[in-house]
Amino acid sequence: MLEYSPYAYESHENPYPIYKRLRAEAPVYWNPQIGFWALSRHKDVLMGFRSPELFSNRMGVSLEPSASNIKAEDMMSFLGMDPPRHTRMRALVSRGFTPRRIADMEPRIREIAVGHIGSFIDKGRCDFIRDFAGKFPMDVISELLGVPEPDRDELRSWADTVVHREDGVLDVPQAGLEAAIRMIGYFNKHIEAHQRQPSDDLTSALLEAEIDGDRLEPREVLAFLFLMIIAGNETTTKLLGNAMHWVSKNPEQRALVTENHELIPRWVEETLRYDPSTQGLARVAMQDIELEGQKIRKDDRVFLLIGSANRDETIWDDPDRFDIMRSTNASLAFGQGTHFCLGASLARLEGRIALEEVMARFPKFEIEHERSVRVHSINVRGFAEMPMEFSR
């Protein structure tokens, strides 16, 4: 019997052989232990993203049991909304979270990256996650939202606690719930302060966003800030760690980016395809759906396996090879359709700048792979610790 767990990929250096078997033997797979369907082929995952009339977000994007007990109107993120409610909120958020605002941050993002590297560059070693990749995205998002520097370490600690799972834990632990409550309390006060005294940051822009007299309510702004701190921080940290890991494992690819920094955006994109930070996202069936002879019932949970779809042999030649020169146009790392990741351009910008500064300042790095530690999560894949040594 073919067995699949949403945690399975975390215990392997390369998790994708099980995905190959799923695509070949059970492309529409039912997991009786947890109770969900897994879709593993690119065409099926793409359909899942592009068909909100068939696959709903109303229970959020996690398979954790607590997600199924939350009503749509109580979701702390528009990731848990369907059109037209999602369409309205996304349109209003987009009035403040603009491409221009993101592009204008490039000099400050680079300054943040250089500052963090400067804190350890003279030591000749660091833990890449603890000293850089775990700090850099939170500082970028905090700058964007107007979070004061003295508050950022505590906010980062809360965010890490919200997403942390011990081995075998299949739901949000008490510590995660308490951290989420603290974050909500913090952002309530943050929003109230911006209502009293607006500034030029994204928080004020969201409070002021308007379409035909419609504005975001403070609780909707809070939901977006919560999402930015959790999802934006977590996924970019994992992107950077995964990028460093895989380029170090592929010397010929490393040589390419070392010799030509203009290839760094390709390095980012191939990392997103080859080992995406977000490995899977949950949906719920809106109606009975027959697929490959299997009957998905209305209200069944469905898990869209992005990590598998991004290694589909019908889309890419030799998909298990890390190749920064390949086309990644079909990658589903940021989703597709109405829920395409709103922060994709920011993540790409952060990834490019961070890796440019790494390669400019310590290109001769060696990761201590045997001491690296992976995170344990139901949705994301990456590293919690990555010790390395380097010379300039």
What characteristics describe this protein?
392 residues, alpha+beta, five-stranded mixed β-sheet, three-stranded antiparallel β-sheet, 14 strands, 46% helix, 12% strand
Please describe what this structure looks like.
Helices cover 46% and strands 12% of the residues. The chain has helices at residues 16-25, 42-50, 85-96, 99-104, 106-118, 128-133, 136-145, 152-163, 174-196, 202-208, 218-249, 251-259, 264-274, 306-309, 344-361; strands spanning 28-31, 36-39, 55-56, 125-127, 210-211, 214-215, 280-285, 289-291, 294-296, 301-305, 364-367, 373-374, 383-385, 387-391. The strands form 5 sheets. The protein has a 5-stranded mixed sheet. It has a 3-stranded antiparallel sheet with strand order 4-14-11. Strand 5 and strand 6 (214-215) form a beta hairpin. Helix 3 (85-96) packs across helix 10. The longest helix is centred in the middle third of the chain and has 32 residues, at 218-249. The N and C termini lie far apart (51 Å).
Structural class by sheet pairing and helices:
alpha+beta
CATH superfamily: Cytochrome P450
H-E order: HEEHEHHHEHHHHHEEHHHEEEEHHEEEE
β-strand amount: 5-15%
Parts with pLDDT < 50 across at least 5 consecutive residues: 7-11
How large is the radius of gyration?
21 Å
Q: What composes the largest sheet? A: 5 strands, mixed
Helix residue percentage: 40-55%
Average of per-residue pLDDT values: 90
CATH class assignment: Mainly Alpha
Distance between the termini: 51 Å
Give the overall form.
Answer: globular
Task: Give the count of helical stretches.
Answer: 15
**Physical arrangement of strands within the biggest beta sheet:** 1-2-10-7-3
Provide the domain count.
Answer: 1
CATH topology: Cytochrome p450
Question: Per CATH, which architecture?
Answer: Orthogonal Bundle
Number of strands: 14
